[in-house]
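S1.2 Input.
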Amino acid sequence: MKKIPIIPVAIEEAELALFEERKKIYPRTQKGWFQSWRWVLVFFTQVLFYGAAWLNWNDRQAILFDLVNRKFYIFGLVLWPQDFIYLAVLLVISALSLFLFTAIAGRLFCGYACPQTVYTEIFLWIEAKVEGDRGARMKLDEAPMSARKLRLKSIKHSAWIAIALWTGFTFVGYFTPIRTLAHEVIDVSLGPWETFWLLFYAFATYGNAGFMREQVCKYMCPYARFQSAMFDKDTLIVTYDTERGEPRGSRNKKVDYKEQGLGACVDCGICVQVCPTGIDIRNGLQYECIACGACIDGCDQVMDKMGYERGLVRYTTEHALKRKMNSEAMWKRVFRLRTLVYTGILCLIILVAAASLAYRVPLKVDVLRDRAMPKITETGGVENVYRLQIMNTQESPRGYIISVKGLVGAEIVNENSVAIPSASSKAFPVRVRVPAGSASTGSNRIKFTITDKEKANVTVTEKAVFIVPR
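S1.3 Output.
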């Protein structure tokens, strides 16, 4: 059998072809309706993130996730590990909200509120202010190192690092009281874990927003991969009107382009230059598109200069574009059965969760019977010892009365009241005695009732087992 020779060079060339060198994207700065809304969201999210950590509530930080003491403070609400169900509900609400927004208008979260998008926008703004517009930045990167280039790059990276460190500091400030954290930073007395997370989060912000940018959206974010499962032909997406725009080509503004057999697209490339992920929206919907609307603003500006109608690139649906629907018909299909079901389920979960929080009893009790054998008293009565873990979730000291029922003559022998400091818990031993002959041998059901001394409606009942020896 004749052997076929293998050519190593061909194999090497095939392997090299699988890799694509990253080309740095230099988004062009533009103004417009969508860009204005992006900056509104940037300001809103950053004021919320940086400012909320400094708010006070009842002489403490308003929002604090105290992992050491296992307490989460959210304004007047104190959540404990036993309230884990609310975290699960919050995740469900977040997931359904994402499904709803995606089904209605695609990747709105990615384009306007995602931290990666927000910080990339901030870092790009700093870069433009320091190094200049798109063309100036490209020339600066291509130029050899000089004193001017070193100065501009140093200023830019110093600003980036400052924002990244402040972001890391604020992030840690939600887990360690931020004023205490500030004093520790000033005194250079940060703990090892605080130091690690501050620097880690700062490094992640600096690296993702300053260098990786669109690579995070295109290759690291899982949402980019499964978004298509939530899209359909009635989802609002950023779309190029191919029928109106093609064939594209340059032309004189004063000449009727239709007589030249051209479409409305002047092939200026603005839509590509302003795109933060570097795609060409004229090639159709792509998973890299984050629905920021930058290409819409850029194209509309060109249409205005040429005297053409706006909307060559616009938010619309595939059905509306194909069937030439008007705005009213398009919006009727946008709010279809699928989105209405999502909205209904989301509203129902939010209402149930809100009602649960509003009517939540600010008292939690765990009862554990002591493993020691029951005690027989001199009169023939029987005593069992229990350990009551009483948790006061209110931010004021409370006093509670403990009572027991379920067996005839059952009574608490030791102190039947306990004082619990604000937002804390206390283990309290309780001795329960029943008279001789009032309970059958073996296990007997009893109930402990713990009631607030000042608020009778704040009460918790817990079951327990009373053992009578044979």
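S1.4 Remarks. The CA atoms of residues 239 and 285 lie 7 Å apart.
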